[in-house]
Amino acid sequence: MNLTVIGTGYVGLVSGTCFSEMGNHVTCVDVDEVKINGLKNGVVPIFEPGLEAMVLSNVKSGNLHFTTSLESSLSNSNIVFIAVGTPMGEDGSADLQYVLSVAKQIGELMDKPLVIVDKSTVPVGTADKVRTAIQKELDSREKNIEFHVVSNPEFLKEGAAIDDFMKPDRVVIGADNEYALGVMRKLYAPFFRTNERFIEMDIRSAEMTKYAANAMLATKISFMNEIANICELVGADVNNVRLGIGSDKRIGYSFIYPGSGYGGSCFPKDVKALARIADENNYSAELISSVEKVNDNQKLVIANKIIARFGDDLNGFTFGLWGLAFKPGTDDMRQAPAIYVVKELVKRGAKIVAYDPKAMTEAKEFYLKDTPEVSYVASKYEVLNNADGLILLTEWKEFRSPDFEEIKSKLKHPVIFDGRNQYNAFDLENNGIEYYQIGKKRG
Ligand code: UDX
């Protein structure tokens, strides 16, 4: 099949590349010339395991192309994916300007029948808006060309995106006619051995499925973080409670890890947007709003523990920091707890020496750009030199079993603030390390 994928962000680039891997002829389009030129030469702008190799091999085989010209790409395609960003607008709703501007361009340029697929996360009702925007342009060109708009939300996880796409738990397709459904079935058939994972539904339900899935997962995390905070107050250990409840199949072990709150490009934005969607329909989404509130507070739990230990005024204190990315396996720092913790400590006069295996460039160039109090080192043990304590905020594997003797000998105070509950409190305390974690009081 011949595909155009508009937008070479996370979703667009991964989808386009994986479709080309399955033998489709794919052209990825983006307005960013620098990015497109880089991609043509195999320079992948994001870190995602396996992506670069897959881009390179499909560019080489001629299945994957990159261009800034939507016009040339459209004339060779029968399916078009819209995978441009839907950033959070000022009022918390999803900003549709990029999606609708792309829809307008499709209407201006298309010269043959197309199936147009919304892959970006968009509020319920967006497919109708996309259809209207395209039709308006066709009408003004006095063209009568058939087209179908389909919703196909993306569920990939950063750091495991290729695997998630190539071996999906499910593919959700919202369509309003059999022809469009047939095209999508054929496109996705190579990704499944049986078709029970291909879930067909109406367009609005497909759009809602994405928000409901992300809000459900975010709810599990915020629920567990709230339980963690209560555990700490009543002298329980959330690590035990997690095992205790996860063993119930109805609850399950996944997404109940307490920590420093969820970050990333999806959960914070989608939870907020869902609350807005409810609002706009005169429904006050109490649970969804609380999920967000709990998460905002959770990002600062570790900073508050540091303040409780070292005092309000942190002038003269330096902390070593392990982990900047919002989760391991990515260089992405969007809404990462590290941003909030670092800013809170710096506001009180502290200095931070940070190390992250992948996200230091992101931190330096964007998220902590105006924070000269943060410096960066090339390895995990270097953050410890002259530091008053160690903070862990991303559970990268290389932080999992460090040399605690080295930590103890280098830190001024042998104290660890662990925002991801990576270590055994009993062992560390016995080894003379003052260990603070989420959801379990010391001692
Ligand atoms: C998520 C969804 O998983 C994916 O289906 C959707 O399409 C986009 O959003 P992603 O943002 O890449 O994917 O990350 P994910 O691995 O789901 O983690 C999200 C956040 O939740 C991270 O900050 C992580 O640290 C946090 N988290 C996750 C917890 O705090 N506890 C958990 O038990 C699980």
Automatic annotation (TrEMBL):
Occurrences of domain UDP-glucose/GDP-mannose dehydrogenase C-terminal (ranges)? 320-425
User: Which protein family is named in the record?
Assistant: Belongs to the UDP-glucose/GDP-mannose dehydrogenase family.
Provide the catalytic activity annotation. UDP-alpha-D-glucose + 2 NAD(+) + H2O = UDP-alpha-D-glucuronate + 2 NADH + 3 H(+)
MF terms per GO, please? oxidoreductase activity
Pfam families registered for this protein in UniProt: UDPG_MGDP_dh (PF00984), UDPG_MGDP_dh_C (PF03720), UDPG_MGDP_dh_N (PF03721)
Q: Which lineage ranks, top first, belong to the organism behind this chain?
A: Bacteria, Pseudomonadati, Bacteroidota, Flavobacteriia, Flavobacteriales
- Entry keywords, A to Z: NAD, Oxidoreductase
Known NCBIfam families for this protein?
NDP-sugDHase
Query: This chain belongs to which protein, by name?
Result: UDP-glucose 6-dehydrogenase
Q: Which InterPro entries match?
A: 6-PGluconate_DH-like_C_sf, NAD(P)-bd_dom_sf, UDP-Glc/GDP-Man, UDP-Glc/GDP-Man_DH_C, UDP-Glc/GDP-Man_DH_C_sf, UDP-Glc/GDP-Man_DH_dimer, UDP-Glc/GDP-Man_DH_N, UDPglc_DH_bac
Q: What class of enzyme is it?
A: oxidoreductase
Which source organism?
A: Urechidicola vernalis
